Here is the input.
Amino acid sequence: MTRSDTGAPARTDAFVSVVTVVDADVDDVRGLILATQQLLERDYTNYEVIVVDNGLRPETVAGLRELLTDIPCVRVLRLSRRFPYDTALFSGLESAIGDFIVVFEAGRDPVGMIPAFVSALLNGTDIVQGTSTGPIEGSPIHRAGRSLFYWYNRQALRIVIPVRATYFTAFTRRAVNSLLSSDRQYRYLRHLMRHIGYSILDLPYTPRRVAAPSRGFFSAAHDAVEMVTSYSIRPLRAVSITGVLVAALNLLYALYVVITFFAADGVERGWTTTNLQLAVMFFVLFLSLAVISEYVARLLAETRREPAYFIMEELTSDRLLADETRRNIV
Here is the structure.
């Protein structure tokens, strides 16, 4: 960033896209958009604000229609229904045309940190990952599950996700193009950005003291299972190995039964161990069926090739380019 003739900081010559997802749980959407637009207009020669409507109230949407007539470079993508958070985020990423793209969580992440993320990208980093300086909100069960899931990623998938990683992230254009090149039906931003292999800088920051929307334990567990089965065959391989080991043990046990039958007199027919053997067998059997069912479900979803989301309507400002002389070809 240079200084203008008046001594005030000049705007950085860059096209910055900012993406955020809003729903009925986000307070003061209008104020959030105004603050973001004013910051970008002050700091960058070209910019756009992409707001993904993932379930806003009708009165909020009506207010946004009026707002777009007064401020430039804002687009509102209205999804046809409420989709999972990461799916909604990717709808915004696919629509962004900037050289640098910043994603932040509405109502939680401070808008004022956007220049710090863009600055890190300008210094040569492809991806900037925000990490909270404080503990992530949630019940002890949620935090334990989160730590366990990230431990599994490190050990099994060789993907290191910081335990305090947030959705506040920034990408260069080539990093976003790589993220979007994936044809997966299930895409999770914090996981996929570590999967593609670009350089990543972890940037600590302090989120606003606003409680995140409550999320059920089963919803979080469902997302974890989808991520594990979408990005790795290790659970399937583990079940296969377990099945082979249990089959081998049962073969040895069958040989033991036959030998005992012929070698010993008065062998009782109703051994207690028979029930134990059946319990172990049925446990392995149904565990195998559960894991295989998850992978069959993933295969079914992938082969359908259905769109991950549907955009019902796009609302735009009357003026979409801050610098109309600039041409950006993607």
Residues 210-214 have pLDDT under 50 and may be disordered. The domain at 14-232+308-316 is CATH 3.90.550.10 (Spore Coat Polysaccharide Biosynthesis Protein SpsA; Chain A).
